[in-house]
Amino acid sequence: MYSNNSLIDEKSRGVYVIAATPFKDDGELDLESVDRLTDFYLEKGVAGMTILGMMGEAPKLTLEETTAVMQRTFKRVNGAVPIVVGVSHASNRHVKSLASEAMDLGAAGVMLAPVANLKTNEQVYNYYATVAQLLGPDIPICLQDFPQVTGVHTSVSVINQLVDDFEQVVMLKHEDFPGMRKLSQIRQEASEQGRRRISILVGNGGLFLPQEMLRGADGAMTGFAYPEMLVQVCALFDAGKPDEAEDLFNIYLPLLRHEFQYGIGLALRKEILHRRGAISSAYVRRPGPLLDANDHEELGRLMNRLERSLA
Amino acid sequence: MYSNNSLIDEKSRGVYVIAATPFKDDGELDLESVDRLTDFYLEKGVAGMTILGMMGEAPKLTLEETTAVMQRTFKRVNGAVPIVVGVSHASNRHVKSLASEAMDLGAAGVMLAPVANLKTNEQVYNYYATVAQLLGPDIPICLQDFPQVTGVHTSVSVINQLVDDFEQVVMLKHEDFPGMRKLSQIRQEASEQGRRRISILVGNGGLFLPQEMLRGADGAMTGFAYPEMLVQVCALFDAGKPDEAEDLFNIYLPLLRHEFQYGIGLALRKEILHRRGAISSAYVRRPGPLLDANDHEELGRLMNRLERSLA
Amino acid sequence: MYSNNSLIDEKSRGVYVIAATPFKDDGELDLESVDRLTDFYLEKGVAGMTILGMMGEAPKLTLEETTAVMQRTFKRVNGAVPIVVGVSHASNRHVKSLASEAMDLGAAGVMLAPVANLKTNEQVYNYYATVAQLLGPDIPICLQDFPQVTGVHTSVSVINQLVDDFEQVVMLKHEDFPGMRKLSQIRQEASEQGRRRISILVGNGGLFLPQEMLRGADGAMTGFAYPEMLVQVCALFDAGKPDEAEDLFNIYLPLLRHEFQYGIGLALRKEILHRRGAISSAYVRRPGPLLDANDHEELGRLMNRLERSLA
Amino acid sequence: MYSNNSLIDEKSRGVYVIAATPFKDDGELDLESVDRLTDFYLEKGVAGMTILGMMGEAPKLTLEETTAVMQRTFKRVNGAVPIVVGVSHASNRHVKSLASEAMDLGAAGVMLAPVANLKTNEQVYNYYATVAQLLGPDIPICLQDFPQVTGVHTSVSVINQLVDDFEQVVMLKHEDFPGMRKLSQIRQEASEQGRRRISILVGNGGLFLPQEMLRGADGAMTGFAYPEMLVQVCALFDAGKPDEAEDLFNIYLPLLRHEFQYGIGLALRKEILHRRGAISSAYVRRPGPLLDANDHEELGRLMNRLERSLA
């Protein structure tokens, strides 16, 4: 419906911002803030958006809310940038119906994390292969590799095999930690073995973005609340200026590191977005992290220090 | 609507069977088998039913399907026995809406497992306390203590504190493993400290049912595919015949142990229910365990051995 | 020194009992009970012994104590049966020195569990391959596959690759749970792919011994405190009498299931061995499980029931 | 023997550097580098040292090596600063003997991490309480709270109870992540409830050192390979100059974040110490992380950038 007629593919690059899902102070979905936040991201120059990921609190939405967030975002973006939709779910049937709904609305592709309790390479491969077959070759897939939350470890050989076997696997959200060698191995083995080179966008808030760009990343897929920095850093790397890129990155690193804290990081991110005027409330659905007075003061101090550094 | 006008409470005892959720071979919900399975359980003499638990594949249902299973089961049971409804969910809002729907349909209470990633006693207590306050004192709660799957460990002191602080906490589905000392501690501390004595129904397929009855359990809440044995064992314990009870239990123990296997246990259970004519298909939603030829033959051999033992 | 000149190999079969390590009531090593327990095991007809495994509390021994247990056991066994020695350790150097010491004393081979935090197939393979190369082709290795304790999952393909690459990998202590399909897969893939058929001895107290023998196991490597049952069951399977074997097994199943409880199972096992006169004290080194009055009474009741069943 | 006659206590503050354990390229202990590294740390102005912790590869040393590292370090320090010795072990008997040996050599106290598989508050408390009683009131204890590695979560209430019950619990190595609220809670509850205020030194490489100092930390106990920065930051905080402290900290933050990577972080740390001339080899005992050419180049680039920033 609102597609820009483009799908994600192996050439996708730049910053795909992981969008927060805004709620009102009473926990209800805040669709007006969906508009405002979308505008905020677009103004900061993101190359794409990823909605309904883990940081989008997708598991805490009802199906109706999921649909509402999708529709509102697609309408507001209106084809300006490609949108990837998170479709991870305990049931493959649900993954398929979510993916169909997303693609019908104009999604550029879907992001898929593995279900829990996959242990061996074979189990991880089989999970993804089953879903890839179910979705078919026309729905581009971004593999979400985030073992810190899923508990599932996806080895380089599994990623390689999926790339070899399924043309729709075009992107990796690289979020293993530590994961830099993994990134280099994927690039090296693709090069040496004549394998298709997929798009790799890095997560973890971008904590290692400069190092990862130097190792062959194509950009970032993360939700750091100052996406303009990520955009500029990627642009400087594209312009062949890695040191300028890293100088800029380092100015934001203290705050980025602060937001990196698992769990409470989401509350911090939403609070920054709220303070920056991008959403009307920093509410996180329960059970979820809450900021106390110390957290607020600490965050304010770090934001002030950043502003002074940028001045 | 279909209530027998009774709620679970501290006196609840006997076998509350964990109901499987039947699907057709294509994965669609099989509501006719919901009827058939309900009849099967009632014929076996269960004291109650628990629907939409983990073994009921609740996380793999859509909201519409969840409602359909509830309605069909309540209608078929028609007040014959109390029904507990599993309402565990990542979002407290969802827990509340599921619980309201269940109670409106005539549920006797709700079963609640903790969300993931609760680590300390305080975190576990706070999770349950928040939800208990949200649901209010009129909805009886069965705590589901199943760390093997949830990863959350609920200590005796947390259970005691919840019992002290929330009158609606009336039942424990005891499924920690090993967990027998925990059961004894709860009983002993209630007795010594004048605490309210709640109902404790044991899980894990009933693998330690005789030992747990001797330690003060009030029955079983589990889905072993021969619920008639669980019913008879509990009745024999009630009649003061623990050795006869255990003799009977031991006849079924080889098969019970077989079904105890995590993961594939659900597929085995559904296959037995299918072979016993209680459901039309043994289908488990994907991703999920599948039986192969060896598994089928092995199960058949064990079922034959059981039948010979009973003859 | 005390070797029976035989090493474990692909043909090894029967019951290799996992030996407890006896302590006095004050926690000191009890070498006289090492003798007594060794005699007990030999009298029960075990085909081999495995010392210094996890259930042997090996991580709680000093190096001097480790050496003392080895020497005493080898001397007492005096070549009567092969002895496998557990050599798992955080440091490969230590694995090597332990293995050398064991082989010099006359060990038939070593048992090796992986270190913690190995996640992917590649990591697990590389760990074992590195150690196998370090130990060299002359030291037979039994892979200990016990993810419930180690947290490491070893897939069938990793086991196959190790068998293909290292002739000294001759045995698998099969203890994954549920793990029966794994056992069948190893056998099937060896047969279909012309791979060397290694010895597979099952663990988990023998909870699924009859099923596992039917799936191709060669025996058991476990520490159930009534090893004579395991010995007879294996003999009956060898004699082509699987139903008689399982009938006998089932008589012990209630107690075997009781001992299966992780953690407290070791205390129960030692208490049974103590009651049977095989060791002078049931002491388990701290921190470790302790039996209380309820546990003692419950165990006594189950032992009495077993004796009545056998009478 | 080499004591400075001082024990750690509630007033201990500043930087207690977690000392690496140096090996030669063949994996043998490198005692000459123990001297060199000790000198390096002392020259950088550390307030104390902590040896034989996890980052000191203590689990990979033999008892003889453990003793050798202790003796060499104590001799070289010669009372210049207090030394805390890590004594964590699977067996309480071993903890006691290690602690006795350390104190006899002049240690200022011992550091103790919990054994694995402690789940509830009661289990964690009981573990520490048992060991504290075993060691007695004369051996000061530093609690090591590092759930990312131990898997054990120690709640604020458990820490408080240990402080209340055992006067020898004088220090917390604060390394939970995210853990800043925990730090604030400990301080606040001590203040509000009149509890003894213990020393809190922070870990995780110091990734949040400025924030933690503002929340009431007394310093750092970590092994960042530029300990002079940690020393100066703590001094600036003591001098009431938090902004200057954080400005300095931020210069090192890119490299500190780099070293923060679990697993490979130890190899990076040793490589930096090697490049800085503090140890003769960066060898890490196997199995352990190895740096490849990319890692070396990346590290060199980051070190060069740091040097330019400091110039």
From TrEMBL, chains A, B, C, D:
PANTHER family according to UniProt: 4-HYDROXY-2-OXOGLUTARATE ALDOLASE, MITOCHONDRIAL, DIHYDRODIPICOLINATE SYNTHASE
InterPro entries to which the protein is assigned, alphabetical: Aldolase_TIM, DapA-like
Protein name: Dihydrodipicolinate synthase family protein
Lineage: superkingdom: Bacteria
Record keyword Plastid present: no
Alphabetical keyword list: Lyase
Source organism: Alcaligenes endophyticus
Family assignment from sequence similarity: Belongs to the DapA family.
Pfam families attached to this UniProt entry: DHDPS (PF00701)
